[in-house]
Hints:
The protein is an alpha/beta fold.
Amino acid sequence: xxxxxxxxxxxxxxxxxxxxxxxxxxxxxxxxxxxxxxxxxxxxxxxxxxxxxxxxxxxxxxxxxxxxxxxxxxxxxxxxxxxxxxxxxxxxxxxxxxxxxxxxxxxxxxxxxxxxxxxxxxxxxxxxxxxxxxxxxxxxxxxxxxxxxxxxxxxxxxxxxxxxxxxxxxxxxxxxxxxxxxxxxxxxxxxxxxxxxxxxxxxxxxxxxxxxxxxxxxxxxxxxxxxxxxxxxxxxxxxxxxxxxxxxxxxxxxxxxxxxxxxxxxxxxxxxxxxxxxxxxxxxxxxxxxxxxxxxxxxxxxxxxxxxxxxxxxxxxxxxxxxxxxxxxxxxxxxxxxxxxxxxxxxxxxxxxxxxxxxxxxxxxxxxxxxx
Length: 372
């Protein structure tokens, strides 16, 4: 893919509170997903596949697992002299709330100013699972001579996001109305937390908003400038799954058991890259039964598993029944257990004979390292 003159910026902590069950010791961006990935793998891979070769990750706290995962960026071919992957230092947080995009951008102002070879900045949250070619969005932005281009999707408005916005556009794609936190309804054009701007324009708007103590990106940079700036919307029409609660996290993982969803997310022409761990293949005991599940390397299964996702190194004991569950790395389910609609974080243990049941719309969650 030909390199674009675009700087990528990722917000690692946006909407941490929404999935607090999994972000006690990590950023939202580093939440495990799909048996082997982390949420941040999707936006980084999308940017790299779109020709973006300089990416900065803005984080605030709990970023150890994020650092371990992204490393030098070698997995994405970003360990390079020109461009590369940058984990930007934690920024001061003045209590503006969960949406602190303007404050976080201001804190990395020097990084933005030094990116003199990049004319544009693509800003993305890490709370949406999708596979997108940003090159089309960049071409649209240039063609329309837009000041800001927002990525939107026409679907039912998601609930629980930090600052979900619904857009109304004219026939040319120009945004003429923004409704923040609208009432849920079908077929709204809602924003996906992805924005494209000229770098110099972004820097000037950040300085202006900070000087006037304005902190909300959508409200203060988009909604307030509809009549003074050329703001356009670019549609995304493929599969996308917002992660804003433990329920939506569960639903997004379960959607991977459907072949059309896997084909949409894991397009061989736009691969999703991740850190690879070498491990032995999964082992199945004589009495093991596995149906419609995704099982990672290193698992040992001696019980029954159905409609579930098992991450690397998971162990399921004899006589145990696991249905509609997500079990993360190196967790252990003992013998004669019954689990349904349960999300188990890493290194947790369910002892023999336990029965744990959630519901499809309210899955039970077990925190990292806990023993039940």
